[in-house]
Amino acid sequence: MRVTLQDDRSDLNGxxxxxxxxxxxxxxxxxxxxxxxxxxxxxxxxxIGKGADIVRKAIFAPALVLFSLSSMGLxxxxxxxxxxxDQLRAATKLVxxxxxxxxxxxxxxxxxxxxxxxxxxxxxxxxxxxxRYALLHLAKGIYAELKEYDxxxxxxxxxxxxFATDTSTxxxxxxxxxxxxxxxAPANRQLYQTLQRRLNxxxxxxxxxxxxxxxxxxxxxxxxxxxxxLQASAKKLSKEIEEWSIRYxxxxxxxxxxxxxxxxxETKTELGRYFCFLKGDWQTGLPLLNAGSDEKLREYASAELxxxxxxxxxxxxxxxxxxxxxxxxxxxVRRHAAExxxxxxxxxxGLQKSRVEKRLFAxxxxxxxxxxxxxxxxxxxxxxxxxxxxxxxxxxxDNIYTLTSFVDxxxxxxxxxxxxxxxxVNSSNGDIFLSIDDQDWIKISEWTNSTSQAAxxxxxxxxxxxxxxEQRTAQQLRLKFVYTxxxxxxxxEAAEWVR
Length: 499
Fold this sequence. Notes:
By secondary structure, the protein is α+β, with helices and mostly antiparallel strands. The protein has 16 helices and 11 strands.
């Protein structure tokens, strides 16, 4: 059901929930939806199974939608102006009236998290810049209270994309706080990856001051990961960034003017290093290295620019060269070498093929992902829930269920709960496939008659726990059930990504 709201500026009645009293949030909304099951956000938590000790701690969690400027009908040149103070004040009154019940019901951390997700989704789907701006800020306030730092950062990134506002100072403040307060090795490993992505973005923008600050935070966070290799890597980052900052100053004029043809051979080498080893722009950088003063780099660039060169030979030269580089540059050059290896692998066999595959495996990590089916366990909150339109017994299109978050989550230990339609549980066998961030489907588990019988004990709910490499993350998981045998096809009523 959809309810369209008029721009009602009437005053609010009733108390504002305590976690909104500390600051004035700019809020506005024009639409509100109930979920396909007819549940309201304020509905009490649902139990599963008669007499089961498993309690669903999170209320309705929306299907979160990956989006971009283009999907919202916008472009980078169309950034909107944030609403002024009067518009924010009026919008706050409006949204508190519209979501009065939801605010009152959001008492636990799980309920507040779900409410923030709801507001974030509404911001994506709501037309009008002031409404979007308002909803994003409200969601950000809730996430901040819950110390959901990745979600706060996602809000700040979205505000920067859509509005003429600078969130860089606030972003750094959030990362500083996260680096000080995040506890536990797994959480700190995830935070390290977040900082790494931010550092890469800063380097891409030639913002070396920000990159240096982020490298210091990475060093702090690495100390709480129980990973000595990561700790050693983090200690080298600051030095490398300082070196790149010095190199950048030497070629800044050439980069600004775009003039490279009259540059000295030494400057061309520096420009080539900058484009290839820092930016990963090999198309621009290779001709510069080829015309530069460094004999080895000139040789490597010439070989790659020669269309008759062997793919594996090119991969080998860059891989071995990367061994003498620091962390950032070494990773970029190895990635480039891996691209050449991937091109040449189909033509290899025997020991040569094993050598290259072993090298890539050691660098990329184990790509294998499997799933273990088990009885559903207790969980704290719902990250995402599939919002297909089917009611009980209605088969979803291709039996595919999509679970999308606004931020990346670790794949190792990720939990997907799904509930089978009772009439399809009795006699059904099939395979379960997973697609990660819209990549190829991979088989990760099987559904059998015995699995079906076990699921009956939990009101037909079952849980899939993923086994994956520690560093792998995902923002979207798609689940597909493929029938193989039995009297009936397995039909899924609901699917959830929980934690």
